[in-house]
Amino acid sequence: MAFDKKKILKRLLIIPPILIGVALMAYQVKNRQAPQHETLQEVAKKVRVITVPKLTVVPRALGFGNVTPGTVWEAVAEVAGKIVKIHPLLKAGAILSKDTVILKIDPTDYILARQSIEADIRAINAQISELKTREKNTKASLGIERRSLALNQKDLKRKQALLKRRAVSQAAVDQEERTLLARRQSMQSLQNSLNLLPAEAERLNAQRATLEIKLKNAKLDLARTTITLPFDARIAAVNIELAQFASLGKTLVIGDSIDVSEVSAQLPVDKMARLLDRSRLKNFSVTSATANIEQIMGLKPIVRLRSANLDVSWPGRVVRVSDRLDPRTRTLGVIVAVDNPYKLSIDGNRPPLTKNMYVEVELRGIPQKDKIVLPRSALHNGRVYIAGKNNRLEIKPVKIAYSQGNLTVLASGLKAGERVVVSDLIPAINGMLLSTVDDERVEQSLREAANGEDRL
Q1: What percent of the chain has pLDDT over 90?
Q2: Ramachandran region, residue 340 (left: φ > 0; alpha: ψ -120 to 50; beta: rest)
Q3: Dihedral angle computed from the Cα positions of residues 223, 228, 230 and 235, in that order, rounded to the nearest 10 degrees
Q4: Parallel/antiparallel/unpaired status of strands 434-438 and 45-51
Q5: If you placed Cys at 450, which of 55, 149, 274, 384 could pair as Cys (CB 3.0 to 4.6 Å)?
Q6: What domains can you pick out in the chain, each with its CATH number?
Q7: Angstrom distance (rounded) from CA 414 to CA 396
Q8: 10 Å Cβ neighbour count for 437?
Q9: What is the C-alpha separation between 408 and 416, in angstroms, rounded?
Q10: CA 311/CA 351 separation, integer angstroms
Q11: Could you check whether the bond before residue 375 is cis, i.e. omega within 30 degrees of 0?
């Protein structure tokens, strides 16, 4: 029984702590303070901005093409014969100067042909000289015969008078008449010979003219046995060797001019169109287009060669435009000429602009004034982000005129002086608060791009 009492007392000892805990909890609930609420503040998004400029823009476009020589010369054999002389430096790749004798064909046959014709001409000249002498002699003989005829006529009249007085016989008069007739026949024969001389002289002169033409051809053929370069050239191919026979019409040597190189740069039609100054095209005419095409179109080309360790350029000039579009790429060829392509730069780092080099051609048009420009990265599907009043974001649609490289020229939608966000803004919510920082580096690069100082 005593054990049960102890057990009950232990259980009752638990109740006071529980009551004390409940009392403390009730006290805390009764005396607790209301919770304090913190006011939320709007956080500004930090962005980089530029002030929209109005700049003079140099329109540019890139094209690519292979270098070709301005003139390709083929030495074709105009006469046949064996090659008896060949220049020791006549090899593919060699550069030889103008008027250098590069080949000589055996001239023996052509020398003999010339000498034969010259001999024939001398013979004709002798015949013409003989004819002139004959004409002179015939005229002299004819004069003598005329005087003799006059004397015969006097004798006949005298004898006829004597016959009437029966001082001479009839036979004497008849003999005098026969003598007179013979004299007249002799005169007629001389006159006939004299009349034929002009025709014979014309025939001889015609023969001489024919021989002189043959002589000119013979001299030309003889000159054609010596082949010289018509200009300073780089030898592209040699198709003949010493002692080989060169048949008529065979291409012996091919040479490329080194004074001018050309590049046919292919450009899309739309890019080509924006380079042109329409006011200049008013002066366009078919007759003046070829001579003044560079001035009319207002294009200034720069030819560049870029590789891993090389970046060099040459000034060029537009010489003509292709007569048709490329049907596959829909591009137009602009032919650019580079003068003195083999002339090295002062520091010697620029190589010769040689055939088949694949180069870049940058065409620059007339500078366009007062253009609203932006970095291409500042556009987002035809819209721009503006840091507007109170640094609140405004999203504006714009109309693009064209883009070149990292530069975009706007047709409408922005005014100079507005501030455009040039950094990434995700998400972009209209009206959101911005914290702006001017990006002078982007502004500088924009000016350089407008001035054509950057790389397309």
Answers
A1: 54
A2: left
A3: 150
A4: parallel
A5: 55
A6: 47-57+369-450 (2.40.420.20), 60-65+259-364 (2.40.30.170), 79-106+225-257 (2.40.50.100), 109-223 (1.10.287)
A7: 8
A8: 11
A9: 14
A10: 11
A11: no
Residue 32 has pLDDT above 70, yes or no: no
Of the candidate ranges 8-17, 158-167, 274-283, the one whose mean pLDDT is the lowest: 8-17
All residues at 6 or more sequence positions from 344 whose CB lies less than 8 Å from its CB, including other chains: 350, 351, 352
Q: What pLDDT digit, counting tens, does each position of 219-255 carry?
A: 999 999 999 999 999 999 999 999 999 999 999 999 9
Q: How far apart are CA 164 and CA 143, in angstroms?
A: 32
Cα 286–Cα 278–Cα 377 angle in degrees, nearest 5: 135
Distance of CA 276 to the CA centre of its chain: 19
Q: Which residues of 109-138 are buried (b: 16+ CB within 10 A; e: fewer)?
A: ebeebbeebbebbeebeebbeebeeebeeb
171 vs 103, residue with greater confidence: 103
SS3 430: coil
Mean pLDDT of 380-403: 93
pLDDT of residue 12: 60
Q: Looking at beta carbons, which pairs linking 132-137 to residues 24 or more positions away fall under 8 Å?
A: 132/201, 134/193, 134/197, 135/194, 135/197
- Rounded to whole angstroms, the Cα distance separating 162 from 183 reads 22
3-state SS assignment for residue 147:
helix
Q: Is pLDDT of 292 > 80?
A: no
Structure confidence at residue 143 (pLDDT): 85
* 3-state secondary structure (DSSP) of residue 148: helix
Distance CA 241, CA 414 (A): 72
End-to-end CA distance of the chain: 108
Q: Alpha-carbon distance 443 to 18, whole Å?
A: 76
CB 256 within 8 A of CB 234: yes
**pLDDT tier for residue 29 given thresholds of 50, 70 and 90:** low
